[in-house]
């Protein structure tokens, strides 16, 4: 009993906001200035995996991220998370070994901290016997704001709240609600330096003269309409709100001083491609959203995937050998020359502008993959 | 007497807004949703020239733009302008020959319609005996909104007003007020298609959820501060307001649906260069503003020109043979390696990204260059 090791492995998903979180009310507690809504992506294609073991034999807490040991004391948010769990279950005194990794390349520029913290919290929850989702969401939020949304599958809303206890996420619908919905991530080759989102967000709150108006007057109505669009599976409404909110988030970044810019010329060509494609087909069949980086996350129903990807492959040809690809095979369709001709009037071909494509769908929340004691 | 020809030649300047005009209250009258403030650029470097002759011998009104005859009836705004003048001076019944051209290439993507209409109105004013600046400003506004500001030199404010008679520009200070101020225009090579600003502006008013907040809550305070900064020649305050307002205008364009984007990757590199340069020297010495296109218009005091252009020449090297250059020679300075090293951390060298450079200053309003009767 004295040298027993208890071990838990959890997997947790990435989530992509369709109504964006941008701006904190409280930097330490990570409470936001507005509600946000996200889609949880399938764990099969993108996920964080965390294994935690606990044993009276361990001399100290230890943490490895993607194989490299990190100094826990230097990671304030991680230390804070561990303290919170220990405060909740003071009877558990043994040390922990935490190993975390992502199944997607960090070079892809996809926010991995949300999945990472949701995963850590799920594994700790399992180990410490805490299973209340709201409580886990609050704990995840304090690691990385949007991690509180990765605690659930399907579509999720994060309520801004007034303090730490009222700022948590809840599921709007689960991952089985809208089975035809697909997600395609276009990973954009980027040579410019990023502004870390934590500092950029802080600067926006301090300097943008539009951000409060967005938080107080625009987002509440958009969240209401977005919930409704998701519940009724109204793709056109969902798509328009998603695109408008992505645009407004980048508008706020630009209204920051000095300005913050995440979308580059290729991102903008993808925007042109999508509006052009929707114009060509005569209704809104594809939606884009961009996070704090140049990559495009696209939503569409399954029947559009093959047709739309013809356009992507034409205007953004990629070297298949170098390309990162994840997910299911994309359905093959014959080329529609009328569409290509129409889009050629709006955008130019961009060689080697994409680094990879991920084809995925809406998925479940964190899973406990393995539990063992020996 | 019956075959007398009376001829007038006017020259008028380009103006660049430092508090931006974006959005109309009335599409036909061209009254804006907010006040705007501009700097008039020197007529020696950029100007429109219009020659109008009037004679009882002429059978019909005729119009040539940059040497090519245009059909007046197809140009609603021009027809409207001529009607207005004829209504004011109904005793003048003879027909007109109008020849207009710009001394800067249209390919430069610099707004030429403001200079063009201010020039037309000045020449017509001279010919029809109308010299009241307010009245000329109102007439110019109806040709091209911001033309109402090119009726004056120095710094100029356009009052939004409530109707056509109250929406006009007035001079804040004349062209001799701030003699050390310099303007450098970096003309950016651009391969993408532009969205015409008239339609983009209309779409912003219809779809942006931030534009009214900007017009009603942000701009009035900014105009007040800008007037003060100009009157006191407070470069730092002037520069910060100019940059913030340029950023906010592009934020509104991005918040439009579908979004409108004028600044490309090179424009953004210029933004990075300027914030980096200001960081390096420790205070705000250079300001940028971008209109509805990718070109940067920079303001700085004369003592910065040589030092700053070292950085421009390093990071945006141009093929001198192909380069369009106008204005006075730029003072030569020795390279500051510390500055180059510092900026290299923020931006990459962009070969062939500039098409030209214009080095100019604040200038006077329209001039009647020649008047003759024979």
TrEMBL record, chains A, B:
One of its GO terms (cellular component) is cytosol. Pathway: Steroid biosynthesis; cholesterol biosynthesis. Keywords: ATP-binding, Cholesterol biosynthesis, Cholesterol metabolism, Lipid biosynthesis, Lipid metabolism, Lyase, Nucleotide-binding, Steroid biosynthesis, Steroid metabolism, Sterol biosynthesis, Sterol metabolism. Residues 12-169 form the Diphosphomevalonate decarboxylase-like N-terminal domain. Residues 183-368 form the Mvd1 C-terminal domain. It is an enzyme of class 4 (lyase). InterPro entries: GHMP_kinase_C_sf, Mev_decarb, Mev_diP_decarb, MVD-like_N, Mvd1_C, Ribosomal_Su5_D2-typ_SF, Ribsml_uS5_D2-typ_fold_subgr. One of its GO terms (biological process) is isopentenyl diphosphate biosynthetic process, mevalonate pathway. It catalyses: (R)-5-diphosphomevalonate + ATP = isopentenyl diphosphate + ADP + phosphate + CO2. The keyword Protein biosynthesis does not apply. Its EC number is 4.1.1.33. GO terms for molecular function: ATP binding; diphosphomevalonate decarboxylase activity. Signal peptide: none annotated. Catalyzes the ATP dependent decarboxylation of (R)-5-diphosphomevalonate to form isopentenyl diphosphate (IPP). Functions in the mevalonate (MVA) pathway leading to isopentenyl diphosphate (IPP), a key precursor for the biosynthesis of isoprenoids and sterol synthesis. Belongs to the diphosphomevalonate decarboxylase family. This is Diphosphomevalonate decarboxylase. The gene is 107368820.
